[in-house]
Design a protein that fits this description.
With about 260 residues, the protein is α/β, with parallel strands linked by helices. It has one domain: 3-Layer(aba) Sandwich (Rossmann fold), CATH 3.40.50.720. The chain has helices at about 20-30, 40-55, 70-85, 105-135, 155-175, 195-200, 205-210, 220-230, and strands at about 10, 35-40, 60-65, 90, 140-145, 180-190, 245. The protein has a 7-stranded parallel β-sheet with strand order 3-2-1-4-5-6-7, sandwiched between helices. Helix 5 (about 155-175) links the parallel strand 5 and strand 6 (about 180-190). Helix 1 (about 20-30) packs parallel to helix 2 (about 40-55), helix 1 (about 20-30) packs across helix 8 and helix 4 (about 105-135) runs parallel beside helix 5 (about 155-175). It is globular, with a radius of gyration of 18 Å. It catalyses: D-glucose + NAD(+) = D-glucono-1,5-lactone + NADH + H(+); D-glucose + NADP(+) = D-glucono-1,5-lactone + NADPH + H(+).
Length: about 260
């Protein structure tokens, strides 16, 4: 746990499931104030609010679409109205779907880019604008992917969006370092989340993914949340503009493990 996070206020987009949910709950364990952004089941979000409060944190659920300027602006306003500040912005909301690149429709391309890339841009812009206005040395954490660096056939739009998130992060980190605002990427590998549930329910498919991971197992959302808490804390005070890969070594060319090649 990081004592300096207690009482800080964070927004987590796409926080009602998967990695976003784990990050929001971990922030609750740090006794932070959390804006839980969601598009899904409000009842599940209220259960999260109760769980965060049981840890000693505070939370409010805020419905909103990260592709909407108005909705993202409302998230920042909610942080200010409920808790009086915004210290940490986590741009987590993201989607993917598998389509061979030659069959990828403009509609599918735009949908993934709108959520993953434009949503991250809007979250960064609104949060940083607030931090500058209120002279807050805040932290922005963008949830990228190993596929900001690993090509992924049949997921062209997803890989392109995450490559874009990498450059958003690095550019903003350079631009706003003089203001004391740190901007970093967190790049998960294969994680056991609802978006991957169907794939990992097939033993052969799961085994195939595990073969790509030097540590040999599918990661848990809580392991990503732990990395997010570190990036939000003062323990990472000299870290900005990086991608922290939490991937079990997936980005380290696992096919060469054992001296092959």
């Amino acid at each position: 746990m990081y004592k300096d996070l207690e009482g800080n206020t964070a927004i987590v987009t796409g926080a009602s499931s998967g990695i976003g949910r784990a990050i929001a709950l971990r922030f609750g364990q740090e006794k932070m104030n959390v804006i839980i952004n969601y598009l899904g089941n409000e009842q599940e979000v209220q259960q999260m609010v109760s769980e965060i409060e049981s840890y000693g944190g505070k939370a409010v659920g805020v419905y909103g679409d990260v592709t909407s300027e108005e909705d993202v602006s409302k998230l920042v306003a909610a942080a200010h109205d409920h808790f009086g500040s915004l210290d940490v912005m986590v741009n987590n909301a993201g989607i993917e779907n598998e389509v061979p690149s030659e069959n990828l429709s403009l509609k599918d391309w735009r949908k993934v880019l709108d959520v993953n890339l434009t949503g991250t841009f809007l979250g960064c812009r609104e949060a940083i604008d607030y931090m500058i206005e209120h002279q807050i040395k805040g932290r922005v954490i963008n949830i990228s992917s190993v596929h900001e660096t690993i090509p992924w056939p049949h997921f062209l739009h997803y890989a392109a969006s995450k490559g874009g998130v990498k450059m958003i992060t690095e550019t903003l980190a350079l631009e706003f370092a003089p203001k004391g605002i740190r901007v970093n990427n967190l790049g998960p590998g294969a994680i056991d989340t609802p978006i991957n549930a169907a794939k990992f329910s097939d033993p052969e498919a799961k085994k195939g993914v595990e073969s790509l991971i030097p540590l040999g197992y599918i990661g848990r959302p809580e392991e990503i949340a732990a990395a997010a808490a570190w990036l939000a804390s003062s323990e990472s005070s000299y870290v900005t503009g990086i991608t922290l890969f939490a991937d079990g070594g997936m980005t380290k060319y696992p096919s060469f493990q054992g001296g092959h090649g």
